[in-house]
Protein 1
Amino acid sequence: MKILKRLIISILVLIIIALGYLYRNIADRHPGYTLNLNINPSMQPGIIQIGFGKIPITPEIIDTWNDMDGNAKYEPEKGDTYNDLNSNGEFDAVWIAGFHHLRPAQGIHDDIWARVMVLDDGQTRMAIVGLDVIGLLHDDIVDIRKTLPEHLQIDYTIICSTHNHEGPDLVGIWGESIFKSGVDPKYMEFVKKQTVTAIARAVANMRQAKLKFAQNLNDGSNFVMDTRKPQEMDPGIRVIQAIDVETDTTLGSLISWGNHPETLWSRNLLISSDFPHFIRESVENGVRKGNKVLAKGIGGTSVYISSSVGGLMTTRPDFPIPDPFTGAQLTGATFEKTKAQGQQIGLLILNALNNHEAVDIEKANIKLRAKTISIPLDNNNFRLGFALGVISHGTTGWMNVRTEVSAFQIGPASFITIPGEIYPEIVNGGVVSPPGQDFAISPLEVPPLRSFMQGKFKFVFGLANDEIGYIIPKSEWDEKPPYLYNDDESPYGEENSIGPEAAPIVYKSLIELLGSLYND
Ligand SMILES: [Zn+2]
């Protein structure tokens, strides 16, 4: 009996330790944090100040085969996998996020960045950050906000991930196994610190500026494909150019387009920011090759923000991109093709800025709404990831996730921020209710979000202040057979979504914010 009693006590102790561990992993990291911003300008449109800042967030790639003195740490044998290397305890990689596990970075092709545009109308100051990473979760965004120095006087910070698939893991699910986070905590701290520094630089660089808004709503569709029915994309390219009023030179630009930055695809092991690198380079320095110049650059610092990338916007290796200089159709997953893609988008942006439909403004003010929302975490794999600490993210209530949406207007442009990868049909229209759906409902997320936005230029910032995964129309949600359109396989997307309630909640919250923005 004594042994049995001891055994029972031991088991109880183990259960308590395990529960404590799970509780610690899913506990709210920011208890009481809630945001509710209602900013109505109290004056007429006035002087605008704009500043740009940038700083690399490129990780240090340590030679994975050798130690610091150059001595071989481990002699790989033929047929070794990365798992074998790791079991030796010597293999500590920078894990590249996206596609699958076990993508250890082997070098750097181009820097990845924290790039910032700060806008100030004399009353409200906001920072818009573009990070060349797969995603940054809301808890980490709040960490950054809490460390922003008071003297920067930022009223609202929007931190967007480009969703780069060729940079380090900052979410956790692309490490060496599904049970081990791919995030290096030291690198995470570095990214947060660099982001704060980039914002501070942008504030220090603020100058009185005029803004030029331009767009090309259709031609971007030549450089992106949709891999899931219905065929709906978000091909519009939108740009804001900020020009120093005194010197008439470009301070920088903010560019937005909807495509997964993953043209380099899954076998690339060199750190890169993928096509956004080549878009920014083209806009800043022009599209040129030797003496041949297809378009002159505008200078300054370009910030790239992804718009709707869900459902699924991508450039597969078999999708050809024409070289802008030779017209040669480039396929595969090469840097040459990725550069051509960036140059093509860069050309569309530079031409749009010279088009008579571009709009210049010298005065403006910022009207803004932002609020914390809560979404149930319904994905069992994500729940397990949270509980095991693979995804370092707290929960609120019983397995809910705190996230955020916002809507704002500046002159002729309106903006909404989306905390993940939204399906373009929710933004532009075309939500369907196909046969095989899991919920027998008509489209919920209608009419489309852009129809509630005002002004000529309607920006959608995706993966903004969070990455909750795919935001899928509830009437298109499909995990169980029969599958959508009676296809043989289930569609891709649901396994990387927080759950079927994400889209209705994000949609409804944004409609409310837009209603308040224009009517209150
Ligand atoms: Zn994605």
Protein 2
Amino acid sequence: MASVQLYDTTLRDGAQKEGISFSVADKLAITRKLDELGVHFIEGGWPGSNPKDVEFFASAKDLSLRNSELVAFGSTRQSGTRAEDDANLKSLAGVGVKTVTVVGKSSELQVTRVLETTLEENLNMIADSIGYLRAKGLTVFFDAEHFFDGFKTNSGYALRCLEAAAGAGAGCLVLCDTNGGSLPDEIAAAIRAVRERTVVALGIHAHNDGGLAVANTLAAVAGGASQVQGTINGYGERCGNADLCSIIPGLKLKMGVDCITDAGLAKLTEVSHYISEVANLALDASLPYVGSSAFSHKGGLHVSGLAKWAESYQHTDPARVGNRSRVVVSELSGRGNIIYKAREMGLDLPSRGEQVKRLLDQVKSLENRGFQYENAGASFELLVRRAEPDYRPSFELVDFMVVVERRRRLPTSAELEEMLSEATVKVKVGGEIIHTAAEGNGPVNALDHALRKALLQFYPSLAAVRLVDYKVRILEESVGTESQVRVLIESSDGVREWRTVGSSANIIEASWLALADSLEYWLLKQKSDREKGGKEDG
Ligand SMILES: [Zn+2]
């Protein structure tokens, strides 16, 4: 089994993505997480380019990394200067790491048109810079920028750049598809050509502009590259960098190339989600291997196949990358989806019984009215529970009233105008009817306050539940203010998160339904936790 070293550049190249701005604390947190994952190298930043990266490297000295080595990034000296006078190289040498990556040009046109220097001077810049850093005792990786484009237009010169780097003692020649437009067979052919000319290790750094960064990376490994550079979730400028979350399982599970431990691989989904949290970017649900939809099944045929044989509609076992299969319930579902989903909740529904048919009919009729259970697993679970003959809800709504009012505090001052909402709620808990009222900054907020006020008397622990997200969608089937409205609510108690749905022609009623489901679901879970733990309510 061949082996490959993983080089993560989320903190440097990945941070170039629009919308990402990592603080030093963010970078330290991500470094710790990447170390847990077990990548070989973590590129921390470019100390010559900004003070934040200098501060990061200073703080990172206190991290005791178990698996990964921190690498600093910089570029070759400027033309017409001496390496020992170059401020960028000096800060790279002094940043306190053992390995550095130096980027230099390897394309004739880039040298003459962009760098505006001679081809010979560029070779000297590469050799001098690497020589200088080697003399300081550092391991140096050479990032050959625009290598594949350069190889296409003038392969002789592109190879001379690599020879200059190798001759100066570079430990790895990293071939870059900087503009991200190469095809896998072009990458493989270029790698093979380089492989024949040098014994120095080769690396691949691919961008995703053609949607091929992962394919290009795997093609490079097949051709002999032994270091792969990429970012978590494919973060990076434009269309991003090669996504390590696809590359790692691709190497290990599909190509049999050793690059990470089984335990590390099983952390991949967690690491992907964690880093998207730190980056404050919603994770694309359809990301291969790690996305929440990567192993979710909606079609009835797929689900019934899956129930018989797990691999029937999955290319790999989701558990190996720390993800899991998920079945979504929708009007497209068959009985199999309902049964599978119920089984996830620990309920065994008989496959031919009336109960399943009734539930399926109910889902279809509710979806007709605008409900959607694909992203509202908690509402679906309540639907199943409510169909059980012995189900007792923790509360029942008798009625509610909401008043929305625009008030002017002083007759002359328009600035003190405010919107006020007040809700009155009547709910039944056990045999008792409770009547409460509360204000809020909007009608839904007021309803939420009034309902909690009523329920907290009976269920004090409900105080832990908060609304994390509230989404309203106008359904296309109808028009204007008469439209059917769907409300999706995401709630959390700090430990678990759940989603509920409500739908109505009235936005307040739709919100109420989703809100009431959210609290009822949580109370149901508390009850079953207690029953499992055999504890009394405290
Ligand atoms: Zn790059």
